[in-house]
Design goal:
- 29% of the residues lie in helices and 51% in strands.
- With 148 residues, it is of the alpha+beta class.
- It has helices spanning 13-21, 23-27, 117-121, 124-147, and strands at 2-9, 33-38, 43-51, 56-69, 73-82, 87-101, 104-116.
- The longest helix has 24 residues, at 124-147.
- It is globular.
Length: 148
């Protein structure tokens, strides 16, 4: 499942980049992210709680920053295993920052999400709407972070 979208933040590109490179600060914006542990500067583990229309799924997730172009682009890969369902998910995400104005930054993201096992049987449509809702909530949380 591929998802591509963008959102705008009322902040300078350098400030947005700083937040995106601060795993703990960024994790505070991710809906359902709990118990984040930084394993290194580029790798982290977290418990994730994803609420779909019919159930709540808890995951153990491992994320790795695989590439970064200072102030412009970052690539992250995540692997997650649900705690009670068989299966797993793999996600590759690219995030690009584009300066619109001195204090306005456009964030463009592209995600390729793959699911296996019982997780996959929930269906692309259900999971896609859940992921899109979480992405919208993440964008709002990042905007709130800069508004404060």
């Amino acid at each position: 499942m591929k998802i591509k979208d963008s959102f705008t933040i009322q902040a300078a590109k350098e400030d947005v980049w700083t937040v995106f490179m601060d795993v703990e600060k960024l994790a505070s914006c991710v809906p359902g992210c709990e118990n984040l542990v930084a394993l290194s500067d580029t790798e982290y583990e977290a418990d994730m709680v994803v609420k779909t229309k019919f159930m709540t799924i808890k995951f153990k997730a491992n994320g790795v920053l695989t590439d970064a172009v200072e102030g412009k682009e970052l690539k992250v890969e995540m692997l997650g295993k649900p705690m009670k369902l068989a299966g797993l998910f793999k996600s590759k995400m690219t995030v690009q920052l584009e300066e619109i104005d001195e204090n306005v930054t456009n964030i463009i993201y592209e995600m390729d999400l793959q699911m296996t096992g019982r997780l996959a049987t929930l269906g692309d449509i259900l999971m896609k709407s859940t992921v899109e809702k979480s992405a919208d909530e993440f964008a709002e949380n990042v905007q709130t972070l800069f508004a404060g």
